[in-house]
Write a structure and sequence with these properties.
Layout (H helix, E strand, L loop, with lengths): L8 H7 L15 H14 L3 E5 L2 E8 H10 L6 H13 L3 E6 L16 E5 L3
Organism: Reticulomyxa filosa
InterPro entries: DEP_dom, WH-like_DNA-bd_sf, WH_DNA-bd_sf
Pfam families: DEP (PF00610)
Length: 124
């Protein structure tokens, strides 16, 4: 009907200078940025010895905790983006799989946003 107003979403976004990448999110451009982020994370998430299904893992953290921390500290907007960042950090050698439930067997298990997947930080 004529009473319904149509909203052009892109125009509203442009009026408010909004974009998918918000300027208030932290930028990670080089290895030093990753190291700074991970050093902060190492002090702010729970890193401890853990046991899971008879596996004993020293000084590790929960995958889900790392993603939550990344979101809360505004390194990422969504958990999916956090997962991608964690996997990138894993490929770069900053995060090592420590144990827990895995989809893939072995040290090459991709980082998972789960409570029963455990990781260690390797900060140079």
């Amino acid at each position: 009907s004529d009473d319904v107003k149509r909203i052009d979403v892109p125009n509203i976004a442009n009026q408010h200078n909004a974009s998918p990448k918000h300027s208030n999110f932290k930028k990670l451009k080089d290895p030093k940025d990753f190291q700074t982020m991970l050093t902060k994370m190492s002090k702010e998430i729970e890193i401890k010895n853990r046991t899971f299904e008879n596996q004993v893992m020293d000084k590790c953290f929960v995958g889900r905790d790392a993603i939550t921390w990344m979101q809360n500290k505004r390194y990422v907007k969504t958990r999916i983006t956090g997962l991608k960042l964690a996997r990138k950090l894993q490929r770069l050698g900053y995060i090592q799989h420590a144990g827990g439930k895995t989809r893939n067997v072995g040290a090459n298990s991709a980082f998972e946003d789960e409570m029963d997947c455990f990781y260690r930080l390797e900060i140079p």
